Amino acid sequence: MSPTAIYSTSQTTHANTVTKPLQQTPHQHQDVSKLADKPLDRIWSGDAAGQIKFPGIPQFEDKLEQREWVKEHLAGAFRFWGKNGFSEGLAGHISVRDPILRDHIWMNPLGVHFNGITKSSLVLVSPEGNITEHGAQLAINRAGFLIHHSVHEARHDIESVAHCHSIHAKAWTAFGTSIDMLSQDSCMFYNNVAVYENFGGIVLAAEEGRNIAEALGPRRKTCLLQNHGSLTLGSTVDEAAYYLSALENQCRCQLLVESAGVSGLKKNIIDNEDAAFTAATLQDPDVLYVSMKTEYDQLVKETNGDFLV
After folding, report:
1. Which pTM value belongs to this model?
2. DSSP assignment string, 128-178
3. How far apart are CA 106 and CA 99, in angstroms?
4. Is the confidence at residue 16, as pLDDT, over 60?
């Protein structure tokens, strides 16, 4: 098929300006036959001798060492959220399973700004919602526990649950619909967003948490809570925290695109094949972990590691 000419409709034409046709070529999909099996290995290159490595999620033999690492990264996730302006009064929480007491979860204390969270201020909560002696002796957000505990119970494949009331996600959820595949970054959410189409008021009973877990289903890791905010899951706390920040950015992008669309501009959506191809790498837990690690490492530098105590 010979290329067909299309004309740009988005540029201003002046008296002495000739609008030139743009050449449109048939859409081509990338060849996936030679990709590395491991998604993380698709995104980096090292030296010829194989000495340079780019590792993903660390593995631990010592569970006590792993517990300390998990707490450090949970505290770092809150600092990342605080830096991005996600703190809003008493709202917002991140939980992560304890590596030793697998039915217990670490959470943030109630009434502490995200920018004030440290490793020693984190609370270890029992399945019954009681504060245990292993962490800080501080109160927690009851709604946060009810939601998170239900999701942890329903999804044994994940380690962490994150939820907050960030402004752009909160605005977009008023429409009660998912987001479009508008960009490469959007593909992180291809077939990966649930919409919980009910607002039952502030969460004060376990039923709402179970309803949210049911809306997520067995595979999806992100959820838009109508008239409420967003909730994300992760194989690490890093993944859950990064997912939520990325979802906030995509909701902001969607709002901007919809606003521009009022002028009559046509919205182009990435097709399913290209979205699935991109999602196969962007949704990988190791890829999401190393994406968040760039933020974590920078936070350690900016704060001189004050959240690690």
Report:
1. 0.88
2. TSPBPTTS------HHHHHHHHHHHHH-TT-SEEEEE--HHHHHHGGG---
3. 10
4. no
306: number of CA atoms within 13 Å, CB side?
Answer: 7
Structure tokens at 210: 């179970």
Per-residue pLDDT at 14 exceeds 80: no
Q: What is the pLDDT of residue 3?
A: 39
Cα–Cα nearest to 194, from 210, 175, 179, 172: 179
What phi and psi values does residue 131 have, to the nearest 5 degrees?
Answer: -70, 130
Cβ-in-10-Å burial (0-12, 13-18, 19+) of 26 comes to exposed
Tokens of 275: 């979205």
Q: Which of 250, 254, 249, 236 is nearest to 292 (CA)?
A: 236
Within 13 Å of residue 33, how many CA atoms lie on the same side as its CB? 1
Indicate whether 268 pLDDT > 70.
yes
What is the per-residue pLDDT across 142-193, written as a single tens digit (0 to 9) for each? Answer: 989 999 999 999 999 999 999 999 999 999 999 999 999 999 999 999 999 9
Number of residues that this document lists for the chain: 309
The owner of tokens 């050449």 is 23
Q: Confidence class of residue 306 from pLDDT cuts 50, 70 and 90?
A: very high
Q: How far is CA 60 from the centre of its chain?
A: 24
The pLDDT assigned to 18 comes to 45
> 248: how many CB neighbours lie within 10 A of its CB?
24
Q: How many CB atoms lie within 10 A of CB 99?
A: 20
The amino acid sitting at 235 is S
Q: Tokens 């703190």 identify what position?
A: 87
H/E stretch holding 273 reads: helix 272-282
Look up residue 79 and give its amino acid.
R
Among left, alpha and beta (phi > 0; psi -120 to 50; other), residue 190 is beta
Distance separating alpha carbons of residues 203 and 153, to the nearest angstrom: 17
Mean of all residue pLDDT scores within the chain: 90
| Residue recorded with tokens 């010829």 | 48
